[in-house]
């Protein structure tokens, strides 16, 4: 989404773009890559441990063409899953401006939520970095708590550099509370 599509005020600019860490998409993509080889692994395991099972199955016609067709459908499903994961990863973003936080939550391929939170409504910003890899790769969860009566919180998992995100949000909050 371009900054023009955010409907910013004339005196408002994007200070920071907050995205999930690349490891999130990498883990999903690695899982899909491993799933692409799953039919071959199953075939080898069945051939090794139960060879009589494959010889007892009688399929009329060309069985290798049938296997190729089913495998191609499997790859198509994996490719669509990869595309959906990439779309959700790329379009799930927070924009921090001088006046507010704009949170775009890409829930599904055709389901997106856009929320705004002005800095005068912010009560607290907490970060949570758990685990060895989160500490090593510098990612964690960021929660922005509001001071309104509905207690609506902005929350994003596995954010890159969460301490920097917290620092920028607090500095903008302090600037806006002085004005």
From TrEMBL:
Annotated YdbS-like PH domain ranges read 94-168
Keyword Membrane found: yes
InterPro entries recorded: YdbS-like_PH
Q: Which UniProt keywords apply?
A: Membrane, Transmembrane, Transmembrane helix
Give the transmembrane region(s): 21-46, 66-84
Question: Which Pfam families does the record match to this protein?
Answer: bPH_2 (PF03703)
The reply to whether rRNA processing figures as a keyword in the UniProt entry is: no
What is this protein called in UniProt? YdbS-like PH domain-containing protein
């Amino acid at each position: 989404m371009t900054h023009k599509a955010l409907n910013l005020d004339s005196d408002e600019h994007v200070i920071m773009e907050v995205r999930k860490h690349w490891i999130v998409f990498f883990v999903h993509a690695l899982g899909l890559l491993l799933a692409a080889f799953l039919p071959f692994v199953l075939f080898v395991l069945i051939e090794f441990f139960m060879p009589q099972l494959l010889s007892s199955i009688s399929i009329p016609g060309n069985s290798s063409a049938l296997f190729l067709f089913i495998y191609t459908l499997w790859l198509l499903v994996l490719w669509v899953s990869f595309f959906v994961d990439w779309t959700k990863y790329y379009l799930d973003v927070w924009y921090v401006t001088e006046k507010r936080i704009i949170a775009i939550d890409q829930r599904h391929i055709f389901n997106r939520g856009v929320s705004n939170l002005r800095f005068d409504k912010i009560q607290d910003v907490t970060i949570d970095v758990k685990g060895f890899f989160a500490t090593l790769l510098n990612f964690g969860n960021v929660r922005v708590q509001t001071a309104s009566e509905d207690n609506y919180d902005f929350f994003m998992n596995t954010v890159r550099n969460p301490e920097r995100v917290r620092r920028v949000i607090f500095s903008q909050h302090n600037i806006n509370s002085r004005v």
